[in-house]
Write a structure and sequence with these properties.
about 130 residues, mainly beta, four-stranded antiparallel β-sheet, about 0% helix
């Protein structure tokens, strides 16, 4: 029975994991949407950063600290995470929004509208 509680038999985990993400684009309104599977993570433990065409998700999933446990199976990863999501378009950083519901983080990134400018045409004699 003592070997059941031998900590050396517990699975060893490396620190960190990489959450699964979906990325898609919509036309109306034009935006990129990133959905990340972050079940069991306190939203205050999540940090979002937009760097050009990359969305960086970082944070920490903390293990439950309850009674002494001996695991038979341990598949839910804990620890720090960092995921860099490549975006295929330029986005408007200032208009981005994020929500967290049922363990799914949804980040909406409006597409950056190309700058337009009217170019005056000079007549030959004005040049």
């Amino acid at each position: 029975m003592d070997e059941l509680f031998d900590r050396s038999l517990a699975p060893q985990r490396r620190g960190g994991f990489s959450p699964a993400v979906d990325v898609y684009y919509t036309a109306d309104p034009p935006r990129a949407v990133v959905r990340a599977d972050l079940a069991g993570i306190d939203p205050s433990e999540i940090e979002l950063q937009i760097r050009g065409r990359e969305l960086v998700l970082a944070g920490h999933r903390r293990p439950e600290h309850a009674e002494e446990r001996v695991y038979q199976q341990l598949e839910i990863e804990h620890g720090p995470f960092r995921r860099v999501v490549a975006l295929g378009v330029d986005v408007d950083n200032d208009a981005a929004s994020a929500s967290y519901e049922d363990g799914i983080l949804t980040v909406e990134l409006p597409l950056k509208q190309p700058a337009s400018r009217t170019v005056p045409i000079q007549r030959g004699e004005d040049a």
